[in-house]
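Service request form, structural biology core

Requester: graduate student, group of Dr. S.
Request type: structure prediction, single chain
Budget code: on file
Notes: please return the result as structure tokens.

Sequence provided:
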Amino acid sequence: MPGRTSVRVGGWALILGALGFLGVFSYLAARFDYPAILDGPAGVVLPRLTATGPSGRAVWALYAFLPLIWIPAGTGAYYALRRTHPGAMLTALQCAFLAALSMMAGLMRWPTVHWRLADLYASADASQRPVLDALFDGLNTYLGNYIGEFLGELGFSVFLLLSSWAMLRSRIVPSWLALVGLATGAAGLIGMFRNVTPAVAPVAALNNYLLPLWMIVFGILLLRQRDEQQAIAGG
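Core staff response, request fulfilled:
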């Protein structure tokens, strides 16, 4: 059945996506001091960016496309839960699409325009570098903080909240399991304000662990779906 296939593809997308995010994050943490380096100025960040070489650029490109996993994930969750909560899951599906596109737009700046800025920065003189600094900061604020982080995290956090709420209300998984999903979505909504106030930084840090864990658990639940009309837990 088409619905069953979508559910299974969504499950694998969540599992492999979580593993992909963990792998890319670990690589960039080791080679690029990510994410701490994001607070640095262009004069520090851009030379470090080019120092990662072609392999680093390839990893950034992979990172930029990874958010697309939210599209099959949202479709799979919609088919799995739409029977009991059609309105909520339609909204969740739309939020998953929003997350995929906005996060991809934010991350794509690194292997493209930022990479070009890094090349220019290496040969720029003292009069040119302030312009490159301003362009770098502006792109980080608009594409990074507002589009990629805030809007993207808003999208997938609401997707997780609505999906977990549907599971909780449908009683198709143990309540504690659905509550973990609700906690992950809520932590994402709180953590996305980390660029507004440092008070939520601990919540954002906690969500870095909760999110991939819940993605894997949610993916397994979707893979256990035997039929489009059955519960995620496999009835």
